[in-house]
Amino acid sequence: VQLQASGGGLVQAGDSLKLSCAASGGTFSTYSIYWFRQNPGKEREFVAVIIWNGAVTYYADSVKGRFTISRDNAKNTAYLQMNSLKPEDTAVYYCAADPIYRRTVVAGDVNYWGKGTLVTVSS
Predict the structure, then answer these.
(1) What's the pLDDT tens digit per position in 9-27?
(2) Strand 45-50 vs strand 57-59: parallel, antiparallel, or unpaired?
(3) Burial of 38 (0-12, 13-18, 19+ CB in 10 A)
């Protein structure tokens, strides 16, 4: 499966932004979708995951209550709604896919990755 994240940009603290992850070339509905983020010189950090049918989600503590992951299998697209953005949310955001749903996950556990989209939150 091929993935492409989009929707990043420059926003101010407190603003909202919605990222999209468009998939092609595979059976999107069979994959769990992950969002990770990364800053230069740092490890790629888990943000959120949604199971194949959207029934179960899980978030990193740092974004819980502010971010919402969702998916539309009919459109082969997943989303990350980000509210109350903070400067520390600034990063390149990546969507990724794997047949396995994991709550405790590192980047190396996930098989398919798209190119990232940059989110910059100014104070």
Answers:
(1) 999 999 999 999 999 998 9
(2) antiparallel
(3) middle
